Amino acid sequence: VRLVVWDDHRLGAFEQDGIHDLTDLVDGDCPAPAWAAPYRMNELIARWGELRSDVEARRTAGPGVPLERVRLRAPSPRPRNFLAAPLNYVAHGAEMQGSIGTGGGTPNELGFFIKASGCLADPVGPIELPPMPDRRFDHEGEIGVVIGEPARGVPVERALDHVFGYTLVVDATMRMTETRREERTMRKSFATFSPSGPCLLTADEVPDPTALTVRLWVDDKLRQEGHLGDLVVGVPGLVAMASAVLPLEPGDLFATGSPAGVGPIRPGETVVVESEPIGRMTLPVTQRAW
Ligand code: MN
């Protein structure tokens, strides 16, 4: 199923004829207040076993809402934990060798880092660059893993049982300089730096996660291409490693790392990120107005 969050954080299943509304499956007769609406996806994931057959029925019922009439939102907008893998593709590690702009080290050495979940953004962008004209901002197009079953101390062999699905995430990054060496978390957590979407593709539609690919273009020039089979630490290893540190919960998001080809983005450019079964995000880059 291609799950989406849209408009006022409504839930939906995306089908050929548009979005089939799933909101009331979690809201019941009592609409979620505005502050709680972004957490609907966490509840849908947590109650998936119980609600799955209702979701299936909705997929074929009634006409869908056309995609062009809605605003898509990040498909897991409230991860309690938003984790990310450093230098998780061999070729990307090689291109960053000796660069001042990175902390260095793969997940085998460094484990995971966190991005503030407040930097998540809708799959329509924009990516807003803060007013820091002397700094370089890079694109990193990545596959994101969304956690389903709670995971605490999970062995690698069973880690995929705790993966609910897959989405796209941009891990936009401010690079360090000779004199400015801010925490990685801060450099990667500016507002809007992590557009995610366009959908959350459930794991049952992905028989072989290592075959998932991600491609990223800037103004129609292909900059990045990679697939999860090239990861230094694969999805099961990432989930197992993180779950040994702290319990992972339904809706948690793990950005798996960026393929080679990372480069700067500037206001006026357009970033496109695509993964065949997940879909495509088209993201204008702008100058932040505040
Ligand atoms: Mn990254």
What descriptive keywords fit this protein?
single chain; alpha+beta; 7 helices; 19 strands; binds manganese (II) ion
What is the average of the pLDDT values?
A: 95
**Tally of DSSP helical segments:** 7
Our estimate of the beta-strand percent is: 25-35%
Q: What is the terminal-to-terminal distance?
A: 38 Å
Largest sheet: 11 strands, mixed
Rg calc: 18 Å
Form type: globular
- Count every beta strand, where a strand is a DSSP E run of 2 or more residues: 19
Name the hetero compounds present: manganese (II) ion
Compressed to H and E, one letter per element, the order equals EEEHHHEEHHEEEEEEEHEEEHEEEE
Give the low-pLDDT segments. none
Structural class by helix and strand composition = alpha+beta
Name the helicity range: 10-25%
How would you characterize the overall build of this protein?
This protein is of the alpha+beta class and 290 residues long. The chain has 7 helices and 19 strands. Strands 1, 2, 3, 4, 5, 6, 7, 10, 11, 13 and 16 form an 11-stranded mixed sheet that branches. A 5-stranded mixed sheet has the order 8-19-18-14-15, with no helix packed on it. The radius of gyration is 18 Å and the shape is globular. The mean pLDDT is 95. Manganese (II) ion is lined by residues 84, 140, 142, 171, 255, 257-258.
